[in-house]
Amino acid sequence: MERFLAQLCETSVSQPLPVWEGDTTGHCFTQLVLSALPHMLLAVLSACHWGTPRNPDYLLHCSPGWRLRLTASFLLFVFPLLDLLPVTLPPGAGPGPLGLEVLAGGVAAVAWISHCLALWVLAHSPHGHFRGPLTLALAAFLPAPALVLTLLWHCQRGTLLPPLLPGPLSRLCLLILQLAALLAYGLGWAVPGRSQEPWTQEPLLSQGEETEVAEDGESWLSRFSYAWLTPLLARGARGELRQPQDTCRLPHRLHPIYLARSFQAHWQEGARLWRALYKAFGQHYLALGLLKLVGTMLGFSGPLLLSFLVGFLEEGQEPLSNGLLYALGLAGGAVLGAVLQNQYGYEVRKVTLQARGAVLNILYRKALQLGPRRPPAGEALNLLGTDSDRLLNFAGSFHEAWGLPLQLAITLYLLHQQVGVAFVGGLILALLLVPVNKVIATRIMASNQEMLQHKDARVKLITELLSGIRVIKFFGWEHALGARVEACRARELGRLWVIKYLDAACVYLWAALPVVISIVIFITYVLLGHQLTATKVFTALALVRMLILPLNNFPWVINGLLEAKVSLDRIQRFLDLPSHNPQAYYSPDPPTEPSTVLELHEALFSWDPVGSSQETFISHLEVKKGALVGIVGKVGCGKSSLLAAIAGELHRLSGQVAVWGLSKGFGLATQEPWIQFATIRDNILFGKTFDAQLYKEVLEACALGADLRILPAGDQTEVGERGVTLSGGQRARIALARAVYQEKELYLLDDPLAAVDADVANHLLHRCILGVLSRTTRLLCTHRIEYLEKADVVLLLEAGRLVRAGPPSEILPLVQAVPKTWAEDGQEADSATGQSVGNLEKTKEGLEGEENACGRLLQEESKKEGAVALHVYRAYWRAVGWGLALAILLSLLLMQATRNAADWWLSHWISQLKADKNSSQEASGPTSPGSTGLLSAQLLLFSPGSLYTSVFPLPKAAPNSSSDVRFYLTVYATIAGINSLCTLLRAVLFAAGTLQAAATLHRRLLHRILLAPVTFFDSTPTGRILNRFSSDVACADDSLPFMLNILLANAAGLLGLLVVLGAGLPWLLLLLPPLSILYDRVQRHYRASSRELRRLSSLTLSPLYAHLADTLAGLPVLRAAGATCRFEEENQRLLELNQRCQFAAGAATQWLDIRLQLMGAAVVSTIAAIALVQHQRGLADPGLVGLSLSYALSLTGLLSGLVSSFTQTETMLVSVERLEEYSCDLPQEPRGQLPRLGLGWLTQGSVEFQDVVLVYRPGLPNALDGVTFRVQPGEKLGIVGRTGSGKSSLLLVLFRLLEPSSGRVLLDGVDTSQLELTELRSQLAVIPQEPFLFSGTVRENLDPQGLHDDRALWQALEQCHLSDMIMSMGEYEVLHCRVEEGAGRDRGESWDVGLRLLCLAGGLDGELGEGGRSLSLGQRQLLCLARALLTDAKILCIDEATASVDQKTDQLLQQTICKRFANKTVLTIAHRLNTILNSDRVLVLQAGRVVELDSPAALRSQPHSLFQQLLQSSQQGSHSSRGGS
């Protein structure tokens, strides 16, 4: 190489590339290094932008700035070519040899024509609206120093002095023109001028344009450097990342629609998920293994080249070109390794997102196809959140599974090269780590599975708790159910405790074992008779550290693979659930008779595929077109099951179901109305095009006109999740209106009249069922048999069997006479949802109070902006605990200090050995570390952060006797032992601290949520709250401690490194301020966007959760309406927004990583370059330079690790921030002011309202307007009024779910506003209109607080006519016991008594399923009544609690209530007015005012009283039906 340079530059071989010639730089150095290299870089950078996508407006005119830059670039291409003429023509015009000048001029011309083309492409791309990439503009100015130095050369040589030679003069003129063109280029960039459109004034988003598409169409340089992220990061720095739409759009290959299409091509029902994922994305993923392999090998090249470079500096025998090659190899290897490793991480992340999109899409598609056996919503949400993430961890673990053994093999080979067979002792010890880690990993995996099960149970319980929060508050069960959640959480934390302490053991092994293995290797080496040297010791230390990393990580990689397998199995089980298959369920042929719409023949249905639950059997049923079919029977007889069977929501075990026009779907109104969190209009339209005439007819038919007129925004009013802000009647009518608006041929109506008062029921019957729907076929289930007089056919069901069918005149008289026969187990699962909402009717005023003026109820989820606030760090510190937090920091500092001390002692020992060996050199005077040979080339083979050889002054050495070796080894082992103890202490304390924080954060969140007012739950989607309890809690439990641990380790390591650097190499600290400023700027720019993207990722997860929960709740309705495709599209839209945020966050992390890595490579390259220059000048100290390079490698790695771990920790802290937002900022229910009065403070039961005014917001009408009345102790008061009159508001104020604006409520003369809420609500009882049951046993649902014995529970069940049904649940529990007893056992009376006792116990311990789904709606209402019978409350409030039971049972229950609450005060809100005719008095409300209050007889005697009008309307339906017939 030296000869080539000497020939090119016409210099001597000994100094082929002189840097200085006289007073200026050498011309050859200027042309090659300062001109040719920058021009080559400019050419490469420019070529990268040739592929930039064009602007759609191809003819867009360039701004003056772009035109000036294009002209200057073209001139700069022409001038070097013209400059070659005087050089080539004889006699040459100098100043350099011909070959050198041609080479430099040719490279310059190629560079500028390349740049000119790049500018032309950019000017006609979206960049044309701005200045274009800054890096490209800066690269254009890199050749400027060479031009200036050449100009100086001409001045010094006197080119302008006589005699003037034409050649040099023309070259000087061209040089000046080049400088002028470069100046014009700079002017064009600095002053771009105005383009025809004001694009530079506003960012793209403000023009209503979509954001840029990520990555697609970008140059490879832009892809490697992530320059395409610049607009996104700029928005983040300006604080403009406020919503998911502000992020860049997904590349084509990551879009959910593309992913769904790619995955579906390889997926079919019953297939293995992993196989489909492999076929769709596996080949690209496996190809990434090549990137991983090359990156791993390059990881070893840096230290090897470093050792060669130090050898070159030490020996000084090799030619300069070798040193240059080592330095360039070091820089090039570092850059290439950084780029490859970074691209590997980025591509793996993209494959992970592809698989995630496919998995979440197939999970949702499966949810849409689920049959009757559906998992609880909480379990499905965990599959969506936790399991899908765990499954995708496989992507990161698989390539590590072969990469780590490869690293291990290479490291072992190099270790053998250093210490020979002595490494075997350490290797054996290291290999012992593998089975230990395997045991730990297995235990962790088992604990993980158990923890996931407990997490499922906790999320499921919280889901139910949130759905029934109103009833929980009415009963004052917050603490009881909160304790159940805490018990689940305690079991979950118990498993987490095991995981964290096993983690601590792994951390301890990873941190402490290198020292132990080192001691074993060194003792073995000395015992084998070898002499320890600095080279051997420090190289062995570095290699041992590299050996431990794969050995320790490998079990965790395996653990990650096993976790992925567990989650894969869970997802596969979900995907393998039986699907809803209409083609197989329904007969392919239509009914035999053309006039028949529906035909069932010998059809047997069950909720269970094996028929273990109650079966519904229909021997033969034909329904004619246009018929109205009534379905009647006792509670639990299978009415809802029959409708569910027709809708295809049951398993058909045998027989045939034929439906005419099946493809058109059904109009389905379920018993429990399913309402979406949307406007009323959107709920009714349900995706169908708006037809004003039809819409008006439907509103009128469903009696919604009056309701919409009093709502704040009419039909644009948003209703709460599951319609919680509407009354029960309003929900039923909106659900009915939705079904009617769909204009189907067949309608399945499951008791839509139960939740409305008599007047409205009569309206619905005549205007809707017999009016708008008169030409359709209708199947109507109802207990209000007076409305079935006009039915064409009435079906009588009993115990799941169709016992009679005929005209109303035959069947209806039988209903009252039906004997009290219950189904064997009374199980009639509700077909509509898996959850009951359990809340009291809420009147229109409540809705008004929670909505703003434009009808918006759902508030956008709040999102913090800017850096994570200091109070979040304080909150986590407090959650850990002051004592524990300080102890963790102290143990961390002690661990680092003892580690540094151990390394220092080792270096001290080696120095003494070397000093003893070179005692003659020591006597001659102090020498540098390089001259003593302490730092040889091999010493710096690797870059541990512990090369402290020449840091501290060392004392004189003693002879190296065996006793000295023993002394040094003893001291070293002692320090190492102390370090090991400190490491163990730190690991254990950290585990304890993070566990304490996890428990504290969840407990505070749960406590605050339970005490929040009901208005919060009405306006907050459940998915939003569940996201906190699921994803954010999981992050605080696991991800945050993991990253925090790495952050603390990096910080401590950096601190130890800086202390040693400061003591030994102070000059190197001068590099730290600029380096720190640079790192700080980069990480600040990154963090501004990173934390917002993390917040947006969490924010966009909540709608995904809510959409899945909403879909599972309303599955029968949306399938019947044919809306599954629309819901799937909505899921893809929500998934796309979440994927956008996830992708942007991952890309931003890689953007940071590549910059940190390249900065580290630049620092090492700079020190190497300085070393070469000093070596040329004879100033280099090889030892010092080697140490500097080693420390520079270690320092940049630690700084990179610190920035990465800090930013990731900050993004994880967003979860703590979100938890704290709810734990601190949620409004709370008001507390009482009186001291506790004790249990028996309410002795009589009088209720008095004194001028109570309830207004939800200023400017809205009063919900209660000066209500004043008094209820005497023991009095029975009926409360009536039309919808929206304020009936339920009375109960809300009485229970203090809402606080009155003025006035007082007195109970036995005590002002309720002064009482503690638990004290008040414990003395009141309520039977809600919609029953709330949670998953658990009958016993837990009846008596959550465990206050009553079994006898009291059975007595309450008996009085509610539920005992037979509950006992039948017990029979299944003991059936197998009878079989085991054998045929020969005596079946005497004693056995029967024992069996009955077992039945009793088993019945109370029978599981009710999620939301009590194993009971019919009527049975659930009866169970809630039994719950009220158990209470000793003096005041009972009943809100139409028997709407879903048949009239015979209703009469029996009324008698039970009268008898059981004879001496107690009872307030009854009634729609069936016959239920309050025996009340002492009736309170009639209208528009929030008391208009009548008297006995029923007195009010009936007044012909114009409002009560009499309501009574007449309730009887009008049956009279008009009879008259019509």
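(ticket continues) Second input and output from the same batch:
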Amino acid sequence: MALSVDSSWYRWQWRVRDGLPQSPSEATPLLSPEEGAQNYNLAQQRVVFPNNNVFHQNWAKVSRRYSGNRICTTKYTLFTFLPQNLLEQFHRWANLYFLFLVILNWMPSMEVFHREITMLPLTIVLFITMVKDGIEDFKRHRLDREINCSNIQIYERKEQSYTQKCWKDVQVGDFIQMQCNEIIPADTLLLFSSDPSGICHLETSNLDGETNLKQRHVVKGFTQQEVQFQPEGFHNIIVCEKPNNHLNRFKGYMEHPDQSRTGFGSESLLLRGCTIRNTKVAVGIVIYAGHETKAMLNNSGPRYKRSKIERRMNTDIFFCIGILFLMCLTGAVGHSLWNGTFAEHPPFDVPDAEGNFLPLALGGFYMFLTMIILLQILIPISLYVSIELVKLGQVFFLHNDLDLYDEETYLSIQCRALNITEDLGQIQYIFSDKTGTLTENKMVFRRCTIMGHEYSHQENAKRLETPKELDSDSEEWTQYKCLSFPARRDQGPATKRGQGGSQPLRRSQSAQACIQGHLRQRSMGRCEISQPPVAFSSSIEKDVTPDKNLLTKVRDAAQWLETLSDSRPAKPSLSTTSSTADFFLALTICNSVTVSTTAEPRQRVTVPPSTKALVTSLEKIQQLFHRLKLSSLSQSFSTTAPSDVDLGESLGANMPTTDSEERDNTSVSSGSYSTDGGYRSSTWEQTDILGAVPGASLEEVLQAPALSLAGPDVCYEAESPDEAALVHAARAYSFTLVSRTPKQVTVRLPQGTCLTFDILCTLEFDSVRKRMSVVVRHPLTGEIVVYTKGADCVIMDLLEDPACATHADVEKKMRKIRAQTQRHLDLYARDGLRTLCIAKKILSEEDFQRWASFRREAEASLNNRDELLMATAQHLENQLTLLGATGIEDRLQEGVPDTVAALREAGIRLWVLTGDKQQTAVNIAYACRLLDQTDTVYSINTESQKTCESILNLVLEEVKQSHGPQKPDHKLSGFRLPSATPPPTSGAAVPEVGLVIDGKTLNAIFQGKLEDKFLELTQYCRSVLCCRSTPLQKSMLVKLVRDRLRVMTLSIGDGANDVSMIQAADIGIGISGQEGMQAVMSSDFAISHFRHLKKLLLVHGHWCYSRLARMVAYYFYKNVSYVNLLFWYQFFCGFSGSTMIDYWQLIFFNLFFTSLPPLVFGVLDKDISMETLLALPELYKSGQNSEGYNLLTFWISMADAFYQSLVCFFIPYLTYKDSDIDIFTFGTPINTVSLATILLHQAMEMKTWTIIHGLVLAGSFLMYFVVSLVYNATCVICNSPINPYWVMEGQLSDPTFYLVCFLTPVVALLPRYFFLALKGTYGKSPILKAQKIDKLPMDKREMEIQSWRSQQRPATVPGEAQPTHRPGPPAPEQSFRASTPKSSSPVECKYKEDWVLPGERSSGDHIRDDPCSRDSWAKFSSGEHLLLEPSRMMASRAYSSGQTNSNRPFSQGSHRRSQSSLTI
């Protein structure tokens, strides 16, 4: 098949010349150095001149405009620290409020306290914060200094050699030389690499956490350098884009002296912070330095978020301000009225210097301000500091929870946002990614289809059903030690010895995390092993057991490849043999996998092995075994030898060898393929074999060629687990990727022959195209072949039109292959497999050269480079020939079904937003209990806005009829939405509703302004699945639900595509999984597994919310109760602003006496035990409903505070009425009973009593007496003209004081105690019931919990299979699929589905389609149903009518895809 690009080429030429605007650099081209003055636009692009003798003058002029490489992450300098820090602290309005009070108190006419005393609380708070900020900034300064003083080799123009300088001396345009394992100091364009192929390997773990190596290529034209790079010979000018924070995007070009240009991109940019690996020397020119580097532009610290309690608290503080205003107004009016009762001015009313008295109105205004100063602690300034301390304590216990610690990765939970811990207990919606979040992101090859023939790989499926595989390294070594051949001797330098024997050296040893001062060890009984040497290389990912039927096809394909030659090129055909060869060649070649060895995993293999050694005859191998007489070795070798040759022929001496098919059947059925997949190389050395036959030399026994079979095994470093899985699968069939360079890739065929393909071009995978292509020259035929792999929804639309076939038979066969492949893809999707299509195309030499020129021009363009590159890819990737498809399993993480079930019981709505195929996501949803077997699932797939609106109306009407009238819950755009759990209208159980939509439908919803209807529908749904969604759509959905429904949202993901979703939610959680750390770095919390979410929310979330909510309410109560004592006294002192309590006692009250108990309460209190919270997830709903702290609880606390303040003031007042005691003797009992009441109130709120709680409460009360006794004994004239001298000592000798201190707290707390007693006795709250259960003995507690759960759990349908990892057949899905309507005729059809349970019918049996199943709108699990409202529908694909067996049941009960799409 040849590509004709003539017409498209001329269209492209027209677009480039006339349609696209030229970049500034193209409009004003740079002049060569010899031409003197140069014109360039530094405002829109960056121009880099090299720092050498030729361009030194230009470099000196331009480099001043660019940032140097010195970094400074500190906020302050020595001179700006004090003013800048104070300015930042006074951005908090609470600090401004107290500063205003300090200024007021300095005015003589409004002075209440001593001026210094008023300043003390604010000064202490500002000073503590200033010290904390200063220490943090000093640490940053030390780190900056250490980084800036790091060493690097910089080219010195005068000396014309590289000299060692500091990082801070690097400037844009400098040439720098980096060695292996050095960190890159600035963003550098790669110009030279010691690697012969111009490759430099990077480890980007400092940027994104990914440990797998990335390849960077030398700029085109600089690859073939035989000697060291000479900076003085570099006469080019670099033009690139301005600095930005896109790590994976970079474009520019290099202008040569002859005005020609060479384009480059991110593949040639070495980013600051990355580490050079596997490359001895690399030289580059600095493009961005210092704060303009991409790493520094992405360096953002933890984000500040306001929690829901904090937002609620700010509202309540305004209420407190209102209360304060009323109290001050009362004092001002009372002061004016009281002064107005005097006929003459009283003696204490002192006139000014001129003898004038203040008017009553002005005196009232001054008294208003004086009352603000007097009652200032009504606004709790200490509350903010206390909340920060409490959250630090909560984060400490979160971080040290061993249940949230992952022993495999040595990672504990990370808390990156310290101020929203309580929001974990109020989550109502969770938005989750699927791949890597719900699943392991360990891609396992399961099935494939080639040219319409499906290969199920049943033996491989059985292997994967084992309970739990060993660690990859441990398993390999265990099998190696169990091999039945002579004892191993010297293992060479690639191993290390220990007490347990020799094991291969690992790439790195993970450091053990230090938890609470102890080194965390792995659990007893497990062997201590290191991490896998490379990413995506665990045993379960690498090992593939071949399908016996496909083995025969592969051998025929290998033999067919040997028949090819330059003189007889392969004609385009649809034969199975040629397509099988191309299929496995595509799996091996079309990727970016790096090859390395197991002995040195980071050393890339670039030189293919000797072909002579690989084509060793089978007779020599058999002679080897006969001479050594090692039958056991032969048996072991048949299990673990590489599949370079046919196993049945070469190694099975006692195995029947009648024909190839029989040999294949025997090799599979007899178990000769181990869990290694049949391709692991043997690792014994020469000494092992020589030791078996004393005196025999290696040359005599093996005659050299056979040694290649014992060479070191190779391992693959892939950037994604999908690529690794496909390469391992191809290797299982002996299509082994041996080496890869930028220009060549070598593949070893089953018979041992090595083919080296020249790589002409590689089109990398991106999320827009959803495919990858590689253009190679076939070494046997010389043809130019394009191999493409990608998503089936994309590849199927790029295939060659069968109608263009020259023969009718070819057209028929093409249609048949496409239909069968699509049916297999649907089958894979129902099984929850990730699907990829494989295709190819043959180009003529002329067409390729024309396209290559087209591509080079696009690469050299600075503006619109991405669009031009996309256009070139579209020109190449069309008219493809389908080869087949693969099915890769991404298994569920451990504990995901239980976690999802628990979260749903807790009242949390869980939405899955994924870019995967719809049927794959639906099947995973059933497997993880997101959808239940009895649910009615609506699937909406349409691109038309009108159709989407019609379907939404139809489904809403249908659901409302099923669920009846709803109880309003959420408010949405002016109307009320139904509650989360709608009650059924009758005694019969109403099936739950699930919703499945795709990305195209989401576009129709957003563009058609259908968000309100969509959200109204989702309120009836227990779960929502959004498939084929982009990162932007994920973010938009989260914002839509968060803002419209005003609910608390949480997003969880593990990849870079989840960052926008994580940042949009109230709480973002990143999973440190297989896709790097970009999600973690953008998150508020980071966990290792999805199952940790269960305890994080249900236990820690509940505790954090409950503690903080009750602590905030207690703080408001405490301050209002204490301040009211001063307010009540104003009625008896003429509203003069006087106090009956000493100033220092007022300060110490909040600073010492009542500060510590709330902190201990907020950090350590547990209202319900962890076991009960995990066993009864519905207890989490108390946090969702904000039962701990809301408007009602706030005003109840205010009322309680007013009542208790009245009691605490008037009982002592009535006791000492008409006595002759002084003012402080009257105030001391009031202060004492108030403190006792407030502390006892705190004790009544505590649900957990420990020694710490008791000591803190008792210590606070005793501290009051100790401080008061010492202060009253030493303060003689400190408060002239009156002083508290010996007041407390006198009170302790008075029996009345003890009586007052005993009766007053009892009377004050009696109503609250009575209320709590009634609530505990007759309350029906789940929290109260759970607290009662916690007090029972262990056996009775378990019985009560089981009884509770049995009452809460709905009765199961008889005969219904319980959900497992792979549930039984679910209730049918109601599908609504539409695209461009072809007809508007309404269609009504009844459908009744046969219900098939697992085991009733074999997997090969089919259910016949109902005649109207393809024209119906929905199908239900039982009975008949008629959908009333017609709508315009269409087929999703033209070939969907060819699917006749799509409704068959499948083994293990995967989700059944509905074929009820309306086709017109």
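Agent notes: The longest strand covers residues 439-450. The mean pLDDT is 74. Closing as not reproducible unless the customer responds.
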